[in-house]
Amino acid sequence: MKVITSLVIFGLAAIAYAAVVPELSVPADAKVDFEPQCPVVNGPNVTLIANPDNCTTYFSCDMGKAWEMACPTGLHFNDKEKVCDWPECACCDPAYDPEKKCEEKSEEKSQ
């Protein structure tokens, strides 16, 4: 009886969690101005491309098709590391870089 009660409680908790936590995907009707160029054949690693129109999304390539993906709430896509990251580290939105540290990093790489 304790096992059944535990399973029922676990099931109800899972349903409540699913109802509260938003799905991490981009709505199908979202407007995309940027058309990423994905490789036709997949390589050994997944190809991830930053979305220049939205720091909170990126594109994941699969067999030439780009799929827009969303970072978890509060994170931006870090194009250098190819991960969702804190906005201060992602170097996507200049508003999160008042000290211009991201520009300094890119200048160091180009030298």
TrEMBL record:
Ranges in coiled-coil conformation: none
MF (Gene Ontology): chitin binding
PROSITE patterns: CHIT_BIND_II (PS50940)
InterPro entries: Chitin-bd_dom (IPR002557), Chitin-bd_dom_sf (IPR036508), Chitin_bind-dev_reg (IPR051940)
Keywords annotated in UniProt: Chitin-binding, Disulfide bond, Glycoprotein, Repeat, Signal
Signal peptide: 1-18
Domain Chitin-binding type-2: 35-88
Recorded GO CC terms: extracellular region
Keyword Repeat: yes
SMART domains according to UniProt: ChtBD2
Protein name as it appears in the record: Chitin-binding type-2 domain-containing protein
Source organism of the structure: Nasonia vitripennis
Organism classification: Eukaryota, Metazoa, Ecdysozoa, Arthropoda, Hexapoda
Chain's gene name: 100679633
